Amino acid sequence: MRLNSPQINIITKACMKASKLLIRDYGEIENLQVSTKGPGDFVSSADKRTEKILIEELQKAYPDYGIITEETGVINKSNIKNRWIIDPIDGTMNFLNGIPQFAISVGYEEENEIKCGVIFNPIMNEMFCAEKGNGAYLNNSRIRVSNKKKIKDALLVTGGPKQASKIKDKIFSEYINVSKQVSNVRKFGSAALDMAYVACGRFDGYWQRELNYWDVAAGIVILKEAGGFIDFFESDDEAPLKKNILASNSNIHSELRELIIKKNIE
Ligand code: 2AM
Ligand code: CA
Q1: Atom 5 (ligand 1): residue with closest C-alpha?
Q2: In the chain, where are the structural domains located?
């Protein structure tokens, strides 16, 4: 591995540590699914505990860094120069259902730019990581986006709408419109892994509305370092933690963007 900043080393170690208990919890899910109580509370405590371990490990190294997390919110609010962005379990619904498509996602932001990040699926033992200027890796191998050039041949992935979404109809019609123009579309349920999969060429592109910054922070640097292109289409500058994201191998980007935005206007 040729990634060498102190921050990427710290994130990697924190993810490894947090994943040990997460793997054990995942093994319990099957039993809980058939119990009358169901796994709901169990998952929420797994989420909180994973986050706690990550925060402890990251703070040990840099106590004064800011932290934005899904569960706890913001820590050290005044430090906006150096921030960790944490999603302890991205793909919670999959985790809850015993589907091994979820990940710990941690990004490091400096002066408003993500400098390095890790997306780790502990069940598949796949660790995606990247550092600005030093490339993107899956475990120990360098990764790169696909070389697909035509949108009609593209295999895409998307997500949402969430249950509470006020724009469900718009998101569903977008899905139909895009599906008609491409090879196929998948929906895997973890935004972080969706982006990582574009980064390593498994998918050619990904889009999703109504995400949070922690869903995508680590994915931003991993995808960019793998040669991909990202844009936050129709996102609200006033709400920097809310994102609509379009990520691709870069070849198909403008066509895909046009497909999503133009079809919505019609
Ligand atoms: P989560 O698993 O951490 O909640 C699923 O389409 C993807 O969207 C997941 O990465 C999921 O993250 C994210 N997402 C963000 N907000 C969501 C919400 N309110 N409901 C469902 N998924 C959400
Ligand atoms: Ca998430």
Answers
A1: 189
A2: 6-142, 151-265
Residues 6+ apart with CB under 8 A from 169: none
Which fold does the domain 151-265 belong to in CATH? D-Maltodextrin-Binding Protein; domain 2 (3.40.190)
pLDDT, tens digit, 9 for 90 and up, residues 51-63: 999 999 999 999 9
Give every strand in the sheet of 136-138, ordered side by side.
73-75, 66-69, 82-90, 103-110, 113-121, 126-131, 136-138, 141-142
Q: For the purposes of burial, counting CB atoms within 10 Å of the CB of 238, is it exposed (0-12), middle (13-18) or buried (19 or more)?
A: exposed
Q: Whose CA is nearest to atom 17 of ligand 1?
A: 162
Four-point Cα dihedral 46, 49, 50, 53, nearest 10: -160
Q: What are 167-197's pLDDT values in tens digits?
A: 999 999 999 999 999 999 999 999 999 999 9
174 Cβ inside 6 Å of ligand 1: no
CB of 92 within 6 A of ligand 1: the answer is yes
Q: Residue 159 CA: which ligand 1 atom is closest?
A: 6
pTM, two decimal places: 0.95
Which ligand minimizes its atom distance to the CA of 189?
A: 1
Q: Which atom of ligand 1 is nearest to the CA of 90?
A: 3
Ligand nearest to the CA of 194: 1
- Architecture of the CATH domain 6-142: 2-Layer Sandwich (3.30)
- What is the C-alpha to C-alpha distance for residues 119 and 87, in angstroms, rounded to an integer? 10
Residue bearing the CA closest to ligand 1, atom 15: 211
Two domains, one topology: 6-142 and 151-265: no
Instruction: Report CA(199)–ligand 1 centroid distance (Å).
Output: 20
